[in-house]
Amino acid sequence: MSDDFFRLPISTMTESQRARRDRLTTAVIEMVSEIGPESLQMKDVSERTRISLGTVYRYFTSKEQLLAAAWVAWHQRLSEKVLADLQKAARERSPGEKGVCERVVAFVHREMRAFQRNPNFARLVVHLEACADPYVSETLAEVGEENERVMLALMDGVPEEKARTAHLAISATLHSCLIYWTTGRMTMPQAMRKLEAVTRLVLHGH
Predict the structure, then answer these.
(1) Which CATH number fits the domain that encloses residue 155?
(2) Chain segment 120-174, per-residue pLDDT in tens
(3) What's the structural domain count of the chain?
(4) CB neighbours (10 Å) of residue 128?
C-alpha cells in the first residue's frame, strides 16, 4: 500500500490540523532559507516545531513532499503581493501607467530578485523539478497554474492564446535561468537580461 494512503488529505483536516500543517510549512520555509533544501531533515523539522516525527509523517510522507508544500506557501506569498499591487494600480490607474510588456518585465525581475535574496529557494525549485514523487509533481503543477493566473492578469488585454504561449516561453526561460544560475553557469545579471529579452520578444507590440 502506498505511503500516501496514510497522509492526511487537506480537505479532511480540522482547523487545528490545518494550523499544525501551516506550522510545518512555515518552519520549513525558515529552514530552507537557513540551510538549503539538501540539508533539511524531517527530524529537524519535528524538533523546530515541537511536533512529533510520527505526526509530521501523517501530514507529509517524505521530505520532498514537505519541501513541495513549503515551496507552494513561499510562492503564494509572492503571487498575493503581485495581485494586490495589480488591484491597487487598477484603482489608481493613470494615463502614464505601464503597458503589458513593461508590467511582465517588472514581474519577472521581481521574481528573480526574490530568488536572488533567497538563493536556497532557487535551489529548492531545481531540486523539486527533478523529483518523481507524484505528490510533488501535482504540487508543482498547482504552482504553475497559480503563476499562470498571475501572468495572465498582468497580460490583461493580450489575446488569450498569445498570452498563454507567452507565459509558457517566459516560464521555461525562467526555469532554465534558475538552473544555470544555481549551478554557477550564469550570473544573476545575465539571467535577468536573458529573461527580459525573451519577455520583450514574445510580448512585442504590447
Answers:
(1) 1.10.357.10
(2) 999 999 999 988 888 899 989 988 888 888 899 889 889 999 999 999 999 999 9
(3) 1
(4) 20
